[in-house]
Amino acid sequence: MTATPGLDPARIASPDLLRAVFRRHAAGVAVITARRDGGPVGFTATSVTSVSVEPPLVSFGIGIGASSWPAVSEAGHVGVHILGEHQEGLASTFARSGADRFGPPTSWREGPMGVPVLDDVLAWLVCRVVARVPAGDHRLVVAEVVHGDPSGAGRPLLYHQGRFNRLRD
């Protein structure tokens, strides 16, 4: 890539630029779960998006090097859990490589379609995977909602500037 005269090199497209910009973007925190022969898997995601209401579709990104990718790459269904501000510990557990994500103190049960459903979240969905779209070193997973519960109590957990945060009034 050639530099444009007068353009600050710090602003030329790079992984560091993308990270710096998105550190300034507050995002809701979710945990994605799936089932594999060896048991439940899951990871923390800040890339969950509502795609369509007719049909009801959501999407999320996952790195192809992530420990959960092999399960998500084969799963017919996934769980999407919107975390509350009281669940910073749960978000950290599911973000940590090598953690026993479904061991104590994580509370969960088998939900519809055999998908692991986390307890005490603000809301959860079980979705049928309809596409896995290559996107650089990630895959964009598109899934159709088949079950869910939006009735959890509390306020959402946010991710901003590289850490978990709460809404302020």
Automatic annotation (TrEMBL):
Q: Which domain of life is it from?
A: Bacteria
Residues forming the Flavin reductase like domain are: 22-166
Which InterPro entries does UniProt cross-reference here? Flavin_Rdtase-like_dom, NADH-dep_flavin_reductase, Split_barrel_FMN-bd
Q: Which UniProt keywords apply?
A: Oxidoreductase
User: Looking at the Swiss-Prot or TrEMBL record, what is one Pfam family this protein matches?
Assistant: Flavin_Reduct
The name under which this protein is listed is Flavin reductase family protein
